[in-house]
Amino acid sequence: MTLRGEIDAFPLETVVQLIHSTSKTGQLEVRASDSTGGTLGFDGGRLVAAISGDDVGEPALGAVFAVSQGAFEFIPWTDAPAANLSGDLDQLLDKAVEERDRIVAIRAIIPNDRSRFRLSERAARRGRVHRCPGAIGRRPAGRRGPAARRTDRRGPAPGAGRGGRASATGA
């Protein structure tokens, strides 16, 4: 007998806790309406595996939990799936939330894997191009805003002290 449902009606965390509390062995398939998703493996109720596309382990766990609309189906097995996760359920759910939030933040900037990027002429002239992990949505190091750029070109902004910040002194 299988367990099926919609993620809108039964949040994934609730389904995972149900499988855990009933000590089931098998796989939970999660499919979004756009065919993304993945599979979670359980051994006697313990969450032991996650697979999503080419990802396994924690990245796959985050991808599965990033599915907000879609369907799930639990298929019981007699043998346990191969493990690629470790930790108790609470730790794994915390990791799933961290990975999901990371994926959601990336998808807000890069909507899908088919996005194409183009290197501007200005960036190409500058020479060295590098990737800045964790810098999504932040200014590159050394850029502090308009006052800092003005300081670089024409000296400090009016009323600015050291470092381009306005300062006040008591009289």
Overall geometry comes to elongated
**Which strand order does the major sheet show?**
1-6-2-3-4-5
Overall SS class: alpha+beta
Straight-line N-to-C gap = 81 Å
The value of Rg in angstroms is 24 Å
Query: Could you describe the largest sheet, including whether it forms a barrel?
Result: 6 strands, antiparallel
Low-confidence stretches: 135-140, 145-157, 159-171
- The counted number of beta strands is 6
Binned strand content:
15-25%
Count of DSSP helices?
5
Please estimate the helix content: 25-40%
Describe this structure in words.
This protein is α+β, with helices and mostly antiparallel strands and 171 residues long. It has 5 helices and 6 strands. Strand 2 (26-32) and strand 3 (37-43) form a beta hairpin. The protein has a 6-stranded antiparallel sheet with strand order 1-6-2-3-4-5. It has a domain at 3-109. Mean pLDDT is 79; it is low at 135-140, 145-157 and 159-171.
